[in-house]
Specification:
This protein is of the alpha+beta class. The protein is built from 29 helices and 22 strands. It is elongated and about 125 Å long.
Length: about 675
């Protein structure tokens, strides 16, 4: 730009005065040619697209730059070189400005490969198996169907298998996204990449290699990424029509002026001016500059758009599918309710609960200890029965009083009752309270209505009735007894985020249809959905089920999937826009197109508003870019010469017009910084 226009400025006038125009022209040509060689891909792709009958933005770039350069070379070779007739700076700046926009877009692409790599890393590299009675360690891919694997507490399960000995609590969040651990016993199935939290189990391999649940999720992510359609750029669509029209106009202009008889040089100058004034700078900047401004505005808010396409598509969202665990809810167990039995003080219940759960490693126990915080009671003979509960003794005077915590069935059997009878009693708690339960009536007839056993059964039946809604809402009820007296019930569940309801309400204001996807039971999911306010619930779905639901929703409108877990990766990749919570897993973050850094779905509405505003800016920019061409192409063609007393388009005006159009586009895009 200095060598092309510096001689017109006072700072460069003295320097230019002592240099021949041919020398300045040669310097410009050398610099422009180097830039054209570096960016030769524009010319290769642009002219290839013309040969295939599908002109695009590269065609405009190649034409604007190439014709400007060739004409400038022609002018430079004339006996009298006029610097004002050279367009070398146009040839170089077209390529430079467009390359900057393309570079910013290209840096963000190619994330799916990282997501697949992280998924593959989930499976442990080695497995412990039994061979000929010996415990050996082998690579996971050498495990065969029928092999007996051994898994200890804290270890990842290497393959899908069925437990043949032992019991454990398994963290299945890697596959299902549900934070609550699942108790597993003999006969239950376990999946690769899940984590055994306690116990020691032997299991027989049922699915290995590409047949495991994890491998199927990897395949889903890969397939979804391969079939996800790219966004058709608005500018490219318009360019397909615009390019032939501009070329046609230039040819017609040349022919008309030749017919009038102004000479080849003058006719060619005006034809080239048409092509130069049709330079795609403003059109090329219309999208990337708005994307740059929008991405920057989002980043300051903690909303990261990985690609230009993701920002554009976010503005077109009509349906939002929300994962429950970790997205609408906190993602880890927490105490939600405390129910005291009649005549029991809360301090007594919490003291016993803390004393029991403090020694357990179960996630539900940790949630209770986190809620209570302080433990004052000392216990002895602590015992944890995996999948059922905990029990111990406290010393009161000379007596050792048993304390128990766990399921209703466990606390009754721990009190010495028959397990089969307990199941029958608990299955009909309502009949116990109404006096219609024959088994309880027989027990009362033998031991007396006021016996410790009967009072315990009655109090548990009453607690079951009073806390029945906990179960419907997906909460786990833990009963605590001291001696043969029920102290109360503590409910533990994945708690709803404080901002979830407000965020969903804001989405509705934007006209977004909201859907909650979860692996939870339907009753529990509907209870949470009612509290949060989503429009639709799809419950009891596994990872492949979520991906299938997303495909169905996409048939109804532009769909975004919001999630945080590995199990969400296929759905995040399949959706028109995948949006990950910032605190989610690396796989979810890599699979998503947009990341909410602050881990709050309150930012989701802001992301959609920003996307919509960016789309409006892009459309406005394209309008003004084409309005500029419609206004100035006739001027370049010489159409106003007779009408306006000899108006023509000088190179200086053309350069100023191109700069002004680009300036308007950039200034308009900066309005995205004013809020959304």
């Amino acid at each position: 730009m200095f060598f092309s226009m510096g001689h017109m400025l006072w700072a460069g006038a003295a320097w230019a005065a002592g240099v021949k125009p041919m020398t300045i022209g040669c310097i410009q040509m050398t610099l422009a040619l180097s830039i054209m060689i570096i960016n030769r891909a524009f010319f290769v792709n642009g002219f290839k697209s013309v040969l295939h009958g599908a002109a695009n933005m590269d065609t405009l770039v190649a034409l604007g730059s190439g014709v400007s350069f060739l004409w400038s070379v022609y002018v430079l070779l004339k006996p009298e070189t006029e610097l004002s007739s050279l367009y070398f700076e146009s040839a170089a700046m077209i390529l430079t400005l467009i390359t900057v926009g393309k570079m910013l877009e290209a840096r963000s692409k190619g994330k799916t490969t990282n997501a697949l790599k992280d998924l593959i890393k989930l499976a442990p590299e080695t497995a412990r198996i039994l061979r000929d009675g010996d415990e050996i360690e082998v690579p996971t891919d050498e495990v065969q169907i029928g092999d007996v694997i051994i898994v200890k507490a804290g270890e990842k399960i290497p393959v899908d298998a069925e437990i043949i000995e032992g019991h454990t609590a398994v963290d299945e969040s890697a596959l299902t996204g549900e934070s609550m651990p699942v108790d597993k016993k003999k006969g239950d199935s376990i999946s690769a990449a899940t984590i055994s939290l306690s116990g020691y189990v032997k299991a027989r391999a049922t699915r290995v290699g590409e047949d495991t649940t994890l491998a199927q999720i990897i395949e889903l992510v890969s397939d979804a990424a391969a079939t996800k359609a790219p966004i058709a750029r608005m500018a490219d669509k318009i360019a397909g029509v615009f390019v032939p029209i501009v070329i046609g106009i230039a040819i017609v202009v040349f022919a008309i002026w030749m017919f009038i008889g102004v000479g080849t040089a003058a006719a060619l100058t005006r034809a080239v001016a048409v092509l130069v004034i049709s330079c795609p700078c403003a059109m090329g900047l219309a999208t990337p500059v708005a994307i740059m401004a929008g991405s920057g505005a989002g980043a300051r808010r903690g909303i990261l758009f990985k690609t230009a396409a993701s920002l554009e598509e976010t503005g077109r969202i009509e349906i939002v599918a929300l994962d429950k665990t970790g997205t609408l809810t906190g993602g880890e167990p927490a105490v939600t309710d405390v129910y005291m039995a009649e005549g029991i003080k809360e301090e007594e219940l919490l003291d016993v609960a803390a004393a029991l759960e403090a020694r357990s490693e179960h996630p539900l126990a940790r949630a209770i200890c986190k809620y209570i915080k302080v433990m004052t009671t000392r216990i002895s003979d602590f015992e944890e029965v995996p999948g059922k509960g905990v029990q111990a003794f406290i010393i009161e005077g000379r007596d050792a009083v048993p304390i128990v915590g766990g399921s209703a069935k466990f606390v009754l059997t721990a009190a010495g009752m028959n397990e089969t009878g307990v199941e029958e009693l608990l299955g009909s708690a309502e009949t116990i309270l109404t006096g219609e339960n024959a088994l309880f009536n027989d027990l009362a007839a033998v031991s007396g209505q006021d016996s410790p056993e009967c009072r315990l059964i009655l109090s548990i039946a009453q607690a079951q009735k009073d806390t029945e809604e906990y179960s419907y809402m997906g909460k786990t009820r833990i009963y605590f007894t001291k001696g043969r007296v029920l102290l109360g019930v503590i409910a533990v569940a994945d708690s709803i985020r404080e901002d979830s309801a407000a965020a969903v309400a804001e989405l509705k204001v934007l006209g977004i249809h909201t859907v909650m996807l979860t692996g939870d039971k339907k009753a529990a999911a509907e209870a949470i959905a009612a509290e949060v306010g989503v429009d639709e619930v799809v419950a009891e779905v596994l990872p492949d089920g979520k991906e299938a639901v997303i495909r169905q929703l996409m048939e109804k409108g532009k769909t975004a999937m919001v999630g945080d877990g590995i199990n969400d990766a296929p759905a995040l990749t399949r959706a028109d826009v995948g949006i990950a919570i910032g605190a989610g897993t690396d796989v979810a973050l890599d699979s998503a197109d947009v990341v909410l850094v602050h881990s709050s779905i309150a930012d989701l509405a802001a992301a959609i508003r920003l996307g919509r505003k960016t789309l409006r800016i892009i459309k406005q920019n394209l309008f003004w870019a084409f309005f500029y061409n419609i206004l100035l192409i006739p001027l370049a063609a010489g159409a106003y010469t007779a009408l306006f007393n000899g108006w023509t388009l000088s190179p200086m005006i053309a350069a100023a017009a191109m700069s002004l159009s680009s300036f308007c586009v950039c200034t308009n895009a900066l309005r995205l910084n004013k809020g959304y």
